């Protein structure tokens, strides 16, 4: 990317359009810049961070409510919040703490 007189990268429209569509780290790697540079630009433009939504399988759903959300989350490599939200959406009661 070209730089201006203050050494801040200029962001062509095609790159700005990718902000929030992929992770900051992915875009940074593609551009050869530090992820913090991408994050700062995205935040300055008030673009929310890209978040991958978990794809829930029947096998994953079967674990919900069988053990505490934190344990399910670790096992599935998702956040406890993701587990809780999915469990609530399916009407499955919580199990233990």
Characterization of this structure:
The protein is mostly helical and 97 residues long. It folds into two domains: 1-52; 58-89. Helix content is 47%, strand content 0%. The chain is built from six helices and no strands. The longest helix has 10 residues, at 35-44. The termini are far apart. Residues 2-7 have low confidence and may be disordered.
Keywords for this structure?
single chain; 97 residues; mainly alpha; 2 domains; 47% helix; elongated
Largest sheet, in brief, is: none
Q: What's the total helix number?
A: 6
Please, how many domains?
2
- Unreliable stretches: 2-7
Which SSEs are present, and which pair or pack?
Blueprint: H1 13-16, H2 24-31, H3 35-44, H4 58-63, H5 69-76, H6 80-89
Helix pairs in contact: 2-3, 5-6
Please outline what is shown here.
This protein is mainly α and 97 residues long.
